[in-house]
Design brief:
Blueprint (H helix, E strand, L loop, with lengths): L2 E6 L5 H10 L4 E4 L14 H10 L3 E4 L1 H4 L17 H4 L3 H15 L4 E5 L8 H12 L3 E5 L5 E3 H12 L15 H16 L12
Parallel strand pairs: 1-4, 1-5, 2-3, 2-4
Antiparallel strand pairs: 5-6
């Protein structure tokens, strides 16, 4: 099975970040930040992290167009004004990114999606991108702050606890939703919580 990792760089000091990549044999970091710069974590600015990773034999790629959270095309936003993760992951531009990763995996590369957030459950790298890869048959391994791995199944269990802690009681008064249906709903609720909202003056048609 194809494997895809995710990692949040603010969880680690730079040396520990590199250590985690090496532990899991990551050969290419895919930056999915919409802005590949940080005022507080200068080592992770695009130019700096590219050089640092290269010193350790790790490639850097920036997929802001394919996987960024701040898409500027209005068609990917729903009526409530935030990015619809499900809609965007069916787009041609997302699929271009997916196919690049798939080709790289087939060529022997091991990829990690990199963004800022410590916990993948609070980041589009998981709730939007990794989820879609998971749906397409990838095994997802989220590298946590303590260096352990949470799978996509672990994330989904957490989402259920987060949004439906009393789900076992939902069937007491009639047919309830299946666990699969609740997981989909939980992803959508998290999407609403973290999805980027497009300002009117940033809209680009095309």
């Amino acid at each position: 099975m194809n494997v895809l990792y995710t990692i949040g760089y603010t969880a680690f000091k730079l040396d520990d970040f590199i250590k985690q990549l090496k532990i899991y044999n990551i050969s290419c970091v895919v930056d999915v930040r919409s802005v590949a710069y940080s005022q507080h974590y200068l080592d992770y600015n695009k130019d700096n992290i590219t050089k640092i990773l290269k010193l350790h034999g790790i490639l850097y790629r920036n997929y802001v167009d394919e996987f960024g959270a701040r898409q500027t095309h209005q068609c990917y936003y729903n009526s409530e004004g935030y990015l619809d993760f499900e809609k965007f992951t069916q787009s041609d531009i997302f699929n271009e990114g997916y196919n690049k990763i798939l080709l790289g995996v087939k060529s022997g590369y091991t990829f990690a999606l990199m963004c800022a957030e410590v916990d993948p459950i609070d980041c589009h790298r998981n709730i939007m991108i990794a989820r879609e890869f998971y749906k397409r048959g990838f095994e997802i391994k989220n590298i946590m702050k303590d260096g352990t791995i949470q799978t996509q199944g672990d994330i989904e269990s957490r989402l259920l606890e987060m949004f439906f802690p009393s789900r076992d009681q939902l069937t007491l008064f009639g047919p309830g939703k299946t666990e699969g249906e609740l997981i989909i709903e939980a992803y959508r609720m998290k999407n609403k919580e973290i999805g980027y909202r497009l300002e009117k003056d940033m809209v680009k048609y095309g």
